[in-house]
Every structure is written in C-alpha cells, then in structure tokens.
C-alpha cells in the first residue's frame, strides 16, 4: 500500500476513506442510546417521521382550532416533521433538537397519549363569566405586584387573546395568570 501511495496510485486509499466516511452515517452502528429504557431503533428516523404525522393528524381531529394547545403542538410537530424529512443526516437532526431520534419518538408517543386526555379535559373552555386573576409585576422590582385585576372574557382564555398588561410599555412585565390557585 505504501508503494501505491508513493507512486501516486491512491485509489485503494480513497476507497478506504470513502468507506470510513459512509460508516459514520450508518444508523446500524449505534449500539446503545445511553438512556435507560430507550432501545436503539435502526429505523428511528422513519419511525419518528410517522409519529410526527400521527400527532399532527390526531391533534387536528380532537382539539379545537382556536386552542393554544393545538397551535403549539401543530407548530412543534410540523417543524420536527420538516426537519426529519430533510436531507440532513440522522446525527444532524439529533443535534438540531438536542435529543436522539429515539427520545423524540418517545416524546411523540407521550404526546399521542396526552391528546385524547386534553380533548376530554378541555382546558381551553372557560365558563361564561369566569374571572381570571392577573398579577402584573413591576419591571424595576419583580417582587412587587404593581397591579392585580380580575377579568372575565366569555369562553376564551385571556392568554389566547394576546392581551398586554395595561402599561406594558411603561415598565410592567408579562402577567402571571392565576387559575384556580395555580400559576401559569
């Protein structure tokens, strides 16, 4: 081989180099995810792509179009689907999402389990006349409540309406919404 290299016959070297680079992008070489409970899937990209499509379809069937949950899930999984269908290598897709494809598939499975529960619970339905307590905190002193107000807004969540605090431009931070004693 050294004689070939010295004489300029580098075809064997180039063949070995190409074979080495191709092996770097082969999913079959991954022996473990390194995560307890998540096994290596040799077809992880295809599985993940199918799960993304399933999540988008299911959320479209069961969740109202005006719900913030639906918009968030659809945007997230459309982005993930577009990336997984791109020409990037599996490792580049994993780097884009800072997660392994197997992890992303597990997240999609969990979202598929959550969608029917969200459809049953309907957290986007606020009873007519229900008042939501909002606390607006001062930008100069985040521990000081600058204003508290109680607002009723029919069947729409105030968060979905994109309303700003009364004096958003004059030093108020975004509100923390209290609903049945929980902060959002």
UniProtKB/TrEMBL annotation:
GO biological process: respiratory electron transport chain
Localisation per UniProt entry: Mitochondrion inner membrane
Source organism, top-level taxon: Eukaryota
GO cellular component, one term: mitochondrial inner membrane
Keyword vocabulary terms for this entry: Electron transport, Membrane, Mitochondrion, Mitochondrion inner membrane, Respiratory chain, Transport
InterPro entries: NDUFA5
Pfam families: ETC_C1_NDUFA5
Membrane topology, from the record: Peripheral membrane protein
Entry coiled-coil feature ranges: none
Similarity remark: Belongs to the complex I NDUFA5 subunit family.
Protein name: NADH dehydrogenase [ubiquinone] 1 alpha subcomplex subunit 5
Protein's organism: Apatococcus lobatus
């Amino acid at each position: 081989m050294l004689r070939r290299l010295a004489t300029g016959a580098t075809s064997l070297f180039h063949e070995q180099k190409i074979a080495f680079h191709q092996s770097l992008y082969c999913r079959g070489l991954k022996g473990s995810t390194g995560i307890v409970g998540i096994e290596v899937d040799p077809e992880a990209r295809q599985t993940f792509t199918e799960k993304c499509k399933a999540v988008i379809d299911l959320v479209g069937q069961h969740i109202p179009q005006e719900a913030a949950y639906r918009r968030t899930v659809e945007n997230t999984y459309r982005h993930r689907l577009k990336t997984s269908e791109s020409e990037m290598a599996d490792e580049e897709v994993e780097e884009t999402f800072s997660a392994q494809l197997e992890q992303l598939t597990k997240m999609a499975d969990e979202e598929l389990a959550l969608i029917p529960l969200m459809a049953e619970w309907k957290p986007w339905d606020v009873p007519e006349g229900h008042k939501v307590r909002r606390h607006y905190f001062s930008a100069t002193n985040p521990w000081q409540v600058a204003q508290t107000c109680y607002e009723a807004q029919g069947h729409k969540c105030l968060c979905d309406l994109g309303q700003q605090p009364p004096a958003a431009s004059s030093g108020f931070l975004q509100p923390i919404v209290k609903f049945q004693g929980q902060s959002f």
